[in-house]
């Protein structure tokens, strides 16, 4: 049984759908068969999630399990909004709810809009089981679990804590999926923005193990000559 609040959010999403945006989304997201796209701009979905952050847990679950892409996006963004003000045990409740439904987080935009802002603050808190949770995600056969593990560490990077990310890069550098290669490169680039010597040292030590696309992403902000050295070698 759906609530009035959930129906209001669903109606608002449909009211804000744009055919031209849907065409662009189809090209960029390449949704699987059965995934319905409305064509709602991400900032619009984000604002709707902000105004509906008090949805019942059952309604958030219904959003995450919806065949409509923007409804699933709204669901993860509601969790992200709640995590911004959650503390202590509240964070663990949100994390457990999210982890139990990662099969619903099934495209790169859903992962990238949620992993570092739902799992991230919890990781920063340093719970004892955080490494095990990330390792389990990284070892999953589900592509999006593995990307969640990597992208979630952006929160740690922003705190100047790089070891977890570098460990996952080493663990996933042989992953068969280009979307993982790109995520690894993205996180390495974020480290390099804050500590370029560390990035250079890591690349020099692990260059031959890293996919070419990872190296290209990782070195985007390095000086042109240094970037060319790494890209050319790889």
Q: Tell me the overall shape.
A: globular
The biggest beta sheet is recorded as:
none
Are there runs of 5+ residues with pLDDT below 50, and where?
Answer: none
Rg, alpha carbons: 19 Å
Straight-line N-to-C gap:
55 Å
**Helical residue percent band:** 55-70%
Order of helices and strands: HHHHHHHHHHHHHHHH
Structural class: mainly alpha
Mean pLDDT across every amino acid position: 96
Number of helices: 16
Total number of β-strand segments?
A: 0
Strand content: under 5%
Descriptive report:
- It contains 16 helices and no strands.
- It is mainly alpha-helical and 234 residues long.
- The protein has a domain of 85 residues.
- Helix 8 packs across helix 10.
- The relative contact order is 0.07.
Write the layout of secondary structure elements.
Blueprint: H1 4-15, H2 19-29, H3 42-51, H4 57-64, H5 69-85, H6 89-99, H7 108-112, H8 115-125, H9 130-138, H10 143-152, H11 154-157, H12 163-172, H13 178-194, H14 196-206, H15 212-218, H16 224-233
Helix pairs in contact: 3-5, 4-5, 5-6, 6-8, 8-10, 9-10, 10-13, 12-13, 13-14, 13-15
């Amino acid at each position: 049984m759906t609530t009035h609040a959930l129906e209001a959010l669903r109606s608002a999403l449909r009211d804000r759908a744009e055919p031209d945006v849907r065409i662009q989304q189809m090209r960029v997201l390449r949704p699987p068969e059965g995934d319905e796209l409305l064509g709602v701009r991400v900032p619009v979905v984000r604002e709707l999630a902000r105004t509906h952050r008090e949805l019942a847990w059952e309604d958030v679950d219904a959003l995450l399990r919806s065949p409509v892409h923007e409804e699933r996006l709204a669901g993860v963004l509601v969790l992200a909004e709640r995590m911004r003000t959650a503390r202590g045990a509240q964070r663990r409740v949100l994390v457990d709810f999210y982890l139990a439904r990662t099969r619903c987080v099934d495209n790169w935009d859903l992962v990238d809009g949620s992993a570092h802002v739902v799992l991230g603050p919890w990781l920063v808190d340093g719970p004892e089981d955080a490494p095990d949770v990330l390792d389990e995600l990284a070892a999953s056969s589900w592509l999006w679990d593995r990307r969640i593990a990597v992208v979630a560490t952006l929160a740690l990077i922003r705190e100047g804590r790089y070891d977890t990310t570098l460990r996952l890069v080493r663990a996933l550098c042989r992953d068969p999926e280009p979307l993982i290669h790109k995520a690894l490169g993205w996180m390495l680039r974020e480290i390099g923005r804050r500590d370029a010597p560390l990035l250079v040292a890591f690349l020099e030590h692990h260059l031959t193990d890293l996919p070419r696309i990872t190296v290209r992403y990782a070195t985007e902000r390095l000086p042109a000559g240094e970037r060319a050295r790494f890209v050319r070698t790889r």
